[in-house]
């Protein structure tokens, strides 16, 4: 079976709505942020009634300007813990450079026509300035989007030896905070189109 993890109930319900009846896909909401995603994914993997073949992290996301579009889906080729490391006068040093563990985990890119593919960053703080957006885009030239749960869910899946994918729908552009510009309905509608794909994806 496929375990889909979302952050909030609205995302869970959007994904569930598009699923064909009777398919072997369980969709659960585990909370916002990488810690909630890791704990929630691990918990659901441990109590799943059947063997889980793949974890798919789904939700809304901020898209990097020029690399993805509001209301469209993005597919991860990898999940990156973009703010896990050390800061200093010479800039950000990722945790893996410091020798303390991985900050990038592989994600199987499922095929969605028209969707941008690339790294999806996981952050603990939603980016809210042009300077941070530009710094992230420069540090991760392959990044198409940022969310807050992917790396947590991917960490739990990796520990359990389960394949991982991340699919997000763009609700806003990564940059200066402008809550009024978020297009959450459009993004949720895009998540609602994933059902047939999720119902047929292999482990
Ligand atoms: O800034 C606000 O006022 C505000 C109000 C409601 C929700 C938020 C969130 O930050 C929701 C975070 C939630 O959505 C995902 N998400 C969506 N866009 C982004 C983004 O640009 N950067 C990071 N995460 C984003 C994320 O995965 C969370 O689950 C803010």
Automatic annotation (TrEMBL):
It is an enzyme of class 3 (hydrolase). Residues 22-185 form the Nucleoside phosphorylase domain. The keyword DNA-binding does not apply. GO terms for molecular function: adenosylhomocysteine nucleosidase activity; methylthioadenosine nucleosidase activity. It comes from the Bacteria. It catalyses: futalosine + H2O = dehypoxanthine futalosine + hypoxanthine. Pathway: Quinol/quinone metabolism; menaquinone biosynthesis. GO terms for cellular component: cytosol. Keywords: Hydrolase, Menaquinone biosynthesis. Coiled coil: none annotated. Its EC number is 3.2.2.26. GO terms for biological process: L-methionine salvage from S-adenosylmethionine; menaquinone biosynthetic process; nucleoside metabolic process. Signal peptide: none annotated. It holds the Pfam family PNP_UDP_1. HAMAP family: MqnB. Belongs to the PNP/UDP phosphorylase family. Futalosine hydrolase subfamily. PANTHER family: 5'-METHYLTHIOADENOSINE/S-ADENOSYLHOMOCYSTEINE NUCLEOSIDASE, FUTALOSINE HYDROLASE. Catalyzes the hydrolysis of futalosine (FL) to dehypoxanthine futalosine (DHFL) and hypoxanthine, a step in the biosynthesis of menaquinone (MK, vitamin K2). NCBIfam families: fut_nucase, PRK08236.1. This is Futalosine hydrolase. It comes from Virgisporangium aliadipatigenens.
